Amino acid sequence: MFSHIKPMKLHHVLILTLLAGTGAMQISHSADRNDLRRLLQTGKCERCNLVGADLRNANLRNANLKHANLKNANLTGANLQDANFHGANLRYSSLKNAVIQDTDFSEANLQGATLNYRELDRGDAKVCNAIMPNGVKKETNFDGFFGFGGCRH
Question: What pLDDT, in 10s, does the model give residues 4-34?
Fold first, then answer.
């Protein structure tokens, strides 16, 4: 098949072929445009593919993103108040300066995500059974009231 190509050129052809394949993999692991459009138009996108989506400063208040894949998404400055990310994949996403008041991150994966920890510590967001940015699973949403821990629903 490549008998007419000199050995050095064959090496270059193989490298280019591998690089082209890697690029195709990147494309297949990016946000689905239809899912992104649906989210921005309706605020509802359960189980959507939003990998790497640029949602900076987006108004996602009351959005339903249950079990959505938002790995590496940029949610910097987004309004996520009352949004539902239950069971969502938010690994390595940026939530810097995002409004997370009353946001439901229960059972979500936030490993490696960047966000305002003070808001989480104050209980502004629900994080019951979520995997936190440090990789530790949060078994309760708060330290407990009168010595009883547990998740609030």
Answer: 555 545 444 444 333 334 333 333 368 999 9
| Domain CATH code at residue 88 | 2.160.20.80
Say whether 33 sits in a helix, a strand or coil.
helix
Residue 52 inside a domain? The answer is yes
Domain count, the chain: 1
The answer to whether residue 119 scores a pLDDT higher than 90 is: no
Render pLDDT for 76-98 as a digit per residue (tens, 0 to 9).
999 999 999 999 999 999 999 99
Q: CB neighbours of 34 closer than 8 A, spacing ≥ 6?
A: none
In this structure, is the dihedral angle defined by the CA atoms of residues 46, 48, 51 and 54, taken in order, positive or negative?
A: negative
How many angstroms separate the CA atoms of 10 and 21, rounded?
Answer: 17
Query: Pairing mode, if any, of strands 125-126 and 103-104?
Result: parallel
Closest CA to 48 of 66, 26, 62: 66
Predicted TM-score (pTM) of this structure: 0.74
The DSSP 8-state label assigned to residue 105 in this structure reads: -
Residue 139 is encoded by which pair of tokens? Answer: 């078994």
Pick from 83, 73, 88: which is nearest to 36 by CA? 73
